[in-house]
# Entry
Amino acid sequence: MSTDSAAASAADKTKETSAPASSAGRTISIYHLYSMPHRKVILGATAMLALLTPFSDTVYLPALALVGEDLKASDSMVALTVSIYLACVGVGQLLWGTLSDKFGRHKVLMFALVAFFGFTVGCIFSTSISMFLALRSLQVIIAVYI
# Structure
């Protein structure tokens, strides 16, 4: 085998592996990477995750009086949980953008889901209003990414 033909076959191999190509020799658009059912699953999962943050606030609001009774806290302390929730939404958005760019969106999302459910369980079993405030603020900082 001559050096010219060896170089040509090596160049052909790098062309084949460097970019995905369709049968016509063009690169595949990012809109055609997944099949239609797979795209629908991704859309549904993303929509469910996007609803998690507003849902965790909306479900909590009618239970404010019960939270105050259960944790033996004043109305102002219980109302503070809503204020802290809204403040932490802004802080969380600053944090997660840089982390997902640095570590990748999939890894950060999986961490955020596990941490969110862990802090949610912590909120359920909290024994004082201060513990509840701390866990609720951590929960919402995590939930902003989800």
